Amino acid sequence: MSFFITFEGPEGCGKSTQSRLLYERLSERGYPVIMVREPGGTRISDMIRRIVLDLHNTEIQPMTETLLFSAARAQLVNEVIRPYLDHNGIVLCDRYADSTYAYQGFGLGRDLDELRTLTKMATGGLTPDVTILLDISAEAGLERKFIARERARQNARQSPLPDGRTAAPMEWNRLDARELAFHQRVEQGYRQLIAESPDRWRVFDAYLPIEELSEQIFDVVEHSLGK
Ligand code: TYD
């Protein structure tokens, strides 16, 4: 049976770690599963990712940004997600359309109905079966991401690659760099999205230790798969 699971949350909530751990647990148990992230996941979508996240691209207009995220999503859905679901697989996606509602809608103030129409055009109406929110405050999430970046930078300095280069420091992108108030609107936006369709969302405490959180997520997902 096919199943589409998305991960959402503010910056630094631990989505990437938790989606990877869920992927590992499901694969170990023999489920047919793939994991993708947004924006990205295909060659074209990765090219779009570089444009939207580049810190130098400060002149990007809100509408341009919105269309680029949607274009990356259209490519990913049609090239990867739908074909895998059609073959009865499980798809895990690190961010999806709810990120557009939270970031471009609540964060940037774009009209939510317009965003819904655009998303329907981009995805053909493909909606996740389950969406996992890792709940953390905007302040705490940004702090976590900032600390992780500094640690990655230090590690890169301390252990250069064999040819003398250093590993790329953790990404700090154009959206991370937006002001705290933006990220607080995103955080509140998620709460409103959950209130609108509570059946689809599963909310987890992002402050839990990584392994404990991963177990909780796996239990809930296995239960949903069993339905
Ligand atoms: P990324 O480095 O992947 O961050 P994260 O680990 O938090 O997902 O960067 C993706 C950024 O793009 C993140 O700040 C959220 C933002 N984004 C949107 O603003 N709209 C969208 O539709 C999507 C998919 C992401």
**What is the total tally of β strands?**
5
For the record, the count of structural domains works out to 1
How many DSSP H or I helices? 8
Q: Supply the helix-strand structural class.
A: alpha/beta
Low-pLDDT regions: none
Strand order of the largest sheet: 2-3-1-4-5
* CATH architectural type: 3-Layer(aba) Sandwich
Ligand catalogue = thymidine-5'-diphosphate
Q: In the CATH hierarchy, what is the superfamily? A: P-loop containing nucleotide triphosphate hydrolases
Can you give a write-up of this model?
With 227 residues, the chain is α/β, with parallel strands linked by helices. Helix content is 56%, strand content 12%. The chain contains eight helices and five strands, in the order βαβααβααβααβα. The chain has helices spanning 15-28, 43-53, 62-86, 97-107, 112-123, 138-158, 180-196, 210-226, and strands at 3-8, 33-37, 90-94, 130-135, 201-205. It has a five-stranded parallel beta sheet with strand order 2-3-1-4-5, with helices on both faces. α2 runs antiparallel to α3 and α4 (97-107) crosses α7. The longest helix has 25 residues, at 62-86. The radius of gyration is 17 Å and the shape is globular. The model has no long low-confidence stretch (mean pLDDT 93). Thymidine-5'-diphosphate binds next to α1 and α4.
